[in-house]
Amino acid sequence: MNYGIPYMGSKSKIVKEMIKVFPKADNFYDLFGGGFSVTHAMIVHRSKHYKSFHYNEIRKGACELIKDAIAGKYNYDVFKPNFVTRSEFQVEKERSFYHKIIWSFGNSGKNYLFGKDIEKQKESLHNAVVFDQFDDWAKKFFGFETFGKLKDIKERRLYCKNKIKYNKSKRMDLEQLERLEQLQQLQQLQQLEQLNFYNKSYIDVPIKDNSIIYCDPPYKGTADYDGNNRFNHAEFLDWVHENKSPVFISEYNIDDKRFRCIFKIKKRSLLSSDKSVGDKIEKLYVNKAGLNLLMKNKLNKSGQKL
Ligand SMILES: C[S@@+](CC[C@H](N)C(=O)[O-])C[C@H]1O[C@@H](n2cnc3c(N)ncnc32)[C@H](O)[C@@H]1O
């Protein structure tokens, strides 16, 4: 299962294992919530262990996109996505998080999703699948000019996917529709009365008593969210250390004796400064308050030794 929305630096692939580590409490805070994957997984798998969940993200528009997805705004029954061209993307990404995230390469919000050489064909396929409108290129590609009785956009996309596979033209895939389907799955979320949204810096989110805090801050020197590469890691680590609540931090490496690594997992990563792809070991660190609580609970739920 995919968790959350398509998002640069998403924890979707590893989150199911990672969340087993978090101790029970009244409140769970996801202070660098990004694409919502951690809060989503917590609500799906651990909703009995907390009274409320708190998602925070500093980027403008993230909360609205997630709330809209949960409310069903992106369901194909009500939303027939128009193809977004390169020039529309340049304008719309500044005012719509949907355009910024769904229609950008790697969900980074920066560059347009498709290369110039293939965008016209992508538009042809999109209009055929979503609107059953075939231009000459689409007629040639499919070998017919209407999907006829095949009305469901998801089914049409799968038909298209198989055709692409058969033709071995991998670059033709309808990635934007796959991303939309990930947004649609949020509609199935239950227990929403327990869910709170904040659009602030982590430091300004009011934390209630009896809480577990999870932090997935921008990695040092790697991710760049909306050109905001000035995240102050030293200040953040001081804040974590001084926090009375148990705080868990996702990082590749924290070379600071105040924090203890309690969990490791291999993650296929697309985010590195040289844009290379490879396996990285993602770690979960905890502050003193968190370590004390885990000790008290005797066993870290992942089964890994402290
Ligand atoms: C590594 S991503 C989080 C990914 C998220 N866990 C997921 O699975 O999609 C880091 C996030 O922290 C956000 N961020 C950066 N500075 C922040 C701050 N001061 N307070 C809160 N969020 C911040 C970034 O915009 C980005 O979305």
Description:
The protein is of the alpha/beta class. It has two domains: 15-58 and 200-296, Rossmann fold; 76-186, no CATH class. It has eleven helices and seven strands. It has helices spanning 15-18, 37-46, 62-70, 86-92, 97-102, 119-131, 136-142, 153-167, 175-184, 233-242, 288-296; strands at 27-30, 52-56, 195-198, 211-215, 247-251, 260-269, 278-286. The chain has a seven-stranded mixed β-sheet. Helix 2 (37-46) links the parallel strand 1 and strand 2. It is elongated, with a radius of gyration of 21 Å. It starts with 14 loop residues before the first helix and ends in a 10-residue tail after the last helix. The relative contact order is 0.16. The mean pLDDT is 91. The structure holds S-adenosylmethionine. Residues 4, 7, 9-11, 31-32, 34-35, 37-38, 56-59, 201-202, 216-218, 223, 225, 231 line the site of S-adenosylmethionine.
List the helices and strands and how they pair.
Blueprint: H1 15-18, E1 27-30, H2 37-46, E2 52-56, H3 62-70, H4 86-92, H5 97-102, H6 119-131, H7 136-142, H8 153-167, H9 175-184, E3 195-198, E4 211-215, H10 233-242, E5 247-251, E6 260-269, E7 278-286, H11 288-296
Parallel strand pairs: 1-2, 1-4, 2-3, 4-5
Antiparallel strand pairs: 5-7, 6-7
List keywords for this structure.
alpha/beta; binds S-adenosylmethionine; 306 residues; 2 domains; elongated; 11 helices; Rossmann fold
